[in-house]
From TrEMBL:
It comes from Seriola lalandi dorsalis. This is Histone deacetylase complex subunit SAP18. Residues 7-20 have a biased composition (Basic and acidic residues). InterPro entries: Hist_deAcase_cplx_SAP18, SAP18, SAP18_sf. Keywords: Repressor, Transcription, Transcription regulation.
């Protein structure tokens, strides 16, 4: 007889995130890799101890939102401050079945506009300390590549 879980994805998502006291909790080092091409780095660029050269190191907490991370990236890259610049976020993590890395799209923000993913946190997307964050930056004059979230069908 097979047992089946009665917990649904909605119930898992409803589990409230524990608030983080930033005064008492030590921040984590978040290694962020950016591209200005509008596309994420390939997973194989993280293989065998290698990482892309465009690294930012940010000290933050697990409750950091995508909008908060966007503002930190804009401090470093003035060209990304233009209204309408699109930021697409992906977590890069080691594949548990092998020696490769995998990318998981987690959301996007747009400079100067409010969006549905603005308040999304690293913790809510199951980011683990040691994972990387890959951000594809698309200038406002170029449309971001269609992702599975944005398909019109």
């Amino acid at each position: 007889m097979a047992l089946e879980s009665r917990i649904t994805q909605e119930e898992i998502k409803k589990e409230p995130e524990k608030p983080i006291d930033r005064e008492k909790t030590c921040p984590l080092l978040l290694r962020v890799f950016t591209t200005n091409s509008g596309r994420h780095h390939r997973a194989d660029e993280f293989a065998r101890g290698n990482v892309p050269s465009s690294e930012l190191q940010i000290y933050t907490w697990m409750d950091a939102t995508l909008k908060e991370l966007t503002s930190l990236v804009k401090e470093v890259y003035p060209e990304a401050r233009k209204k309408g610049t699109h930021f697409s976020f992906a977590i890069v993590f080691p594949d548990p079945r092998g020696k490769a890395y995998r990318l998981k799209d987690i959301g996007s923000t747009v400079s100067g506009r409010k969006g549905a993913d603005d308040s999304m946190t690293l913790q809510s997307q199951r980011f683990q300390i040691g994972d990387y964050l890959d951000i594809a930056i698309t200038p406002p004059n170029r449309a971001p590549p269609l992702s599975t979230r944005m398909r019109p069908f």
